[in-house]
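Budget justification note: compute hours in this period were largely spent on complex prediction jobs such as the one shown. Inputs:
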Amino acid sequence: RIFTAPEQLTTTSYDFIVVGAGTAGCVIASRLSENPSATVLLIEAGVSDNGTDSAVLSTPFLAAQAVGTIFDWNYTTTSQVGLNGRTMPYPRGFVLGGSSSINSMVYARGPSEDWDRIATTSGDDGWSWNNLQQFIFKNERHAPAWNNRSNVGEYNPKVHGHGPLMTSLTANPSELDHRVINTTAELADEFPFNLDLNSGDGLGFGWLQSTIGDSARSSSATAYLHPALNSRSNLDLLLNTQVMNLISTGGAATTLNGVRASQSETAANFTFTAAKEVILSAGTIGTPQILMLSGVGPKEELEKFDITTLVDAPDVGRNMQDQPIFFLQWAANGDTLFSFLNDPDAINAALAQYEQNKTGLAASSIVFNTIGFLRLPDNSSLLENGDPSSGPHAAHYQISFIDTFNGNGNQVAPTDGNWISGSVVLISPTSRGSINLTSSSAFDHPLIDPSFFTTSFDIGTAIEAVKTLQTFLAASAFDGFIGSPVTNLTTDAQIEAYVRAAAVTIKHCVSTAKISKANETGGVVGPHLQVKGVDGVRVVDASIFPFTVGGFPQAEVYIVAERAASLIKETWSL
Ligand SMILES: Cc1cc2nc3c(=O)[nH]c(=O)nc-3n(C[C@H](O)[C@H](O)[C@H](O)COP(=O)(O)OP(=O)(O)OC[C@H]3O[C@@H](n4cnc5c(N)ncnc54)[C@H](O)[C@@H]3O)c2cc1C
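Corresponding output:
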């Protein structure tokens, strides 16, 4: 059943209350309600993904356009010292499916070493790559592109499972994509081809997989939530309602089984009670905010807003890590998608074709189809103070190839010609930021400070990455195709200035409620994701990762959520 206001609910007590119908929350609510004896309430602050303007969520071609709309929390960062004092928009999904409904749909699980490091960090071998295979397979399955293009040799069917989330390769590989793949044959030692970046071997160059199936975005709402809502009576969804904080409704003060929610700062407050557990899946920003407003957080932070400290948990909202991205552009002498993307008539025709029969350029990923994950050389001076990646087969940075002009910030785009772009993403940054409260009101946005490029490792790695991208595009596979760069970057100082002026978030923030060993004082949640110092609350979302992920985070969040659902079911013998 779906409710759009708290007063519509006919009961206030459920076995489980899941906070946030995002990437993780929809998985949890769907898996827990598989057992008809368990009652589940899922509370989402944002809007439905089936309403006004929702074509922007489901149409693959429009994937990037939900940012900045009613489907986005529309956060802004604090002024970033490492980026010349700039602030920037900080998008997060405000809709069923959360960020999986508005993201760029890249599906990349990252290296096996990421998971083995989480197992070591938490002291729980259940998080190791090998032990997680069952959950990976339970989550995802490969789907053909709409045109059934043969993609033999572009992915490995053996590493894909049988879950509800669909992933696929592009229906329309570009000339640029073929040249990228040819470069991996030409310079195989330096830039090896990787048949499937989802195999646990997260290094090298390969074809990108996107969360698209049946010609539409596959999100945690489409894959998990809607099928569950359509077929079960023990799952209630409450939309447009924000959880403010957790309270004790009797018993020990540290048993936080009460969930306080409201539709606005001035609307009535409601309390719902979980007989078994509350699962916080409000994401890397929402989860630490709710914890702090519940008295679980750094004491000195809570005191600033007269919030009584229930548990002095210094790591709540700390250790925030995100991956910065910036773009470089080159003139191209062959066909690129630039002309299509600058022709409103062609775009309208593609959208009309999609509307009619879900085919054509709007029905799959098109501009961004190939990617490479790379390491610094072993003897790099940047690694003298330690290696922040999860192991010798995990990336420090990533470069990718875009079949059009992709500008940075206010960069003015050309109006004709053909262009391609390369992006650089720092995968294992050492900068650490934070989420802090701005008031004791849940309806005030918190302070979001990713602290981009505040370490010499981060800026040094970005400089290396630019040079690698330049070397890659100088391969003879690109002869006759690549023209002049839009910005000539030759010295380290030029690259550094460019990065500080251009970089923005790729929106991969993690680690504000990080996992740690059961007996460790640091960290926010234990190995089974229970919040330390309180009873009855788990965190299941991207905030639990101890480090940035070596792939793209949504795949990792799904994996965490599938295992967490299984742990919760085990706890309650469901
Ligand atoms: C624009 C964008 C592009 C991205 N591109 C990619 C990509 O291509 N590939 C990739 O792997 N990752 C990408 N990411 C990141 C990835 O989508 C996220 O890391 C991941 O989806 C986070 O999952 P989550 O469950 O932690 O949080 P979310 O999916 O964000 O879910 C949190 C949910 O909780 C709700 N919520 C928050 N606070 C409250 C509250 N107080 N009360 C009730 N509900 C609340 C939110 O509205 C939201 O629905 C992108 C992210 C964005 C924003």
